[in-house]
Design goal:
It contains 13 helices and 9 strands. It is of the alpha+beta class. The protein has 2 domains: 255 residues, Porin chaperone SurA, peptide-binding domain (Triger factor/SurA peptide-binding fold, Orthogonal Bundle), CATH 1.10.4030.10; 104 residues, Chitinase A, domain 3 (Roll), CATH 3.10.50. The strands form 3 sheets. A 4-stranded antiparallel beta sheet has the order 5-4-7-6, with helices on both faces. A 3-stranded antiparallel beta sheet has the order 2-1-9. It is globular, with a radius of gyration of 25 Å.
């Protein structure tokens, strides 16, 4: 797939940051969940929030704390972990361990870059930090303060400011490291296009919103009947001219209610079969009949449709050029990180020390007499 301009490099930097998803939020909205009902409220499972905050690793003397790992884990995967805690709790510990390993690697890389940025003398001014805070505030729901946003993630506003400062210095370092990377020539871009035809086939997709009346965990027949009656009542209001986004915000049991029920753009195979069949069969602008899935009753409104087609080079040239440019920058940064890591001293507190080379060599020599 064609990456949006700067998405690869921003993604690299975002992967090294843990500012409650702030860096990630500056990109395009995330892809829709595989199942509309999978968008559960991002509550942190109790198992990932112990009170202790030990040092996990040190990187050239700079500590990585347990809270750093937990914050990044919840910023990236809090929603998925909360869902797993409800649906497959027996798998949660294993998945958390795997996720923590990946996050720890990213935190090591972030620490290496931050230390290098500090050594280079990069600074984040008060104006830089305030600009980022203003950008965050603009994306918050109406009536939500920055302080409330920070509290919802279990951190202070000062903590967010500190993380913004660190991210700013890392970006300044990345800009310097990649300053000699040049944009690819048109011939190089065309060569890539010709050699990767499958990447430029636009699949059929729809953009849709939904209102979900959840029946998950409901077994009582009377309660199930009440759920159906509620869904039918919402549908009646829509048929009488009610605003879809307003009714979604009032009645939907899916967190997409915060966006008027919007699930974004999705292709075939991303939603449960009953939902997919209905969405792809509906006309644009139409509100369909109730659709029953294992998760409840859905009312779907399709707002846009993309037919499958092969994209011409002229359609993709600009984005592809930017994407290849960012890939080249990303490779340069990864090479730089590898060099830092090769020279770094990374230690785990409490781990047994390896024997010195000379001592180990002496132990290998058979003793006589």
């Amino acid at each position: 797939m064609i990456m949006k301009p700067s998405s690869l490099l921003r993604g690299l930097v975002a992967a090294l940051a843990f500012t409650l998803g702030i860096a990630v939020a500056q990109d395009a909205p995330p892809a829709p969940a595989e199942k509309p009902e999978a968008e559960q409220a991002p509550a942190a499972p109790a198992q990932v929030a112990p009170t202790e905050n030990p040092v996990v690793l040190t990187v050239d003397g700079t500590p990585i704390m347990a809270d750093d790992v937990r914050e990044m884990m919840m910023a990236r995967y809090g929603q998925q972990l909360a869902q797993m805690a409800q649906q497959a709790p027996e798998q949660l510990a294993m998945i958390q361990q795997q996720v923590q390993g990946v996050i720890l690697q990213d935190l090591v890389q972030k620490t290496l870059l931050l230390n290098a940025a500090n050594a280079e003398g990069f600074k984040a001014t008060d104006e830089d930090i305030q600009k980022s805070l203003d950008e965050i505030a603009e994306r918050l729901p109406e009536g939500t303060t920055l302080e409330a946003f920070a509290a919802s993630g279990g951190v202070s506003l000062d903590r967010i400011k500190k993380q913004i400062s660190e991210d700013t210095k890392i970006r300044q370092l990345v800009d310097k490291v990649t300053s000699d990377v040049t944009e690819p020539a048109e011939a190089e871009v065309k060569k890539y296009y010709d050699e990767h035809p499958d990447e430029f086939k636009q699949q059929e997709s729809v953009m849709a919103s939904h209102i979900l009346v959840s029946t998950q965990g409901v077994t009582d027949e009377a309660e199930l009947a009440a759920k159906l009656e509620s869904a039918e009542g919402i549908k009646k209001q829509l048929d009488e001219g009610g605003a879809f986004d307003e009714l979604a915000a009032q009645h939907s049991d899916c967190p997409s209610k915060q966006n008027g029920g919007s699930l974004g753009n999705f292709g075939r195979g991303q939603m449960v079969p009953e939902f997919e069949k209905a969405a792809f069969a509906q006309e644009v602008g139409a509100i369909g009949d109730l659709v029953k899935t294992d998760f409840g009753y859905h009312i779907i409104k399709v707002t846009e449709r993309q037919e499958p087609k092969e994209m011409a080079f002229t359609e993709v040239k600009e984005d592809l050029t930017a994407s290849l440019f960012e890939q080249a920058k990303g490779s340069k940064v990864q090479e730089y990180i590898a060099g830092l890591q090769e020279k770094a001293k990374i230690e785990q507190p409490g781990a047994p020390e390896a024997p010195a080379e000379e001592e180990a060599a002496e132990d290998d020599v058979p003793k006589v007499g």
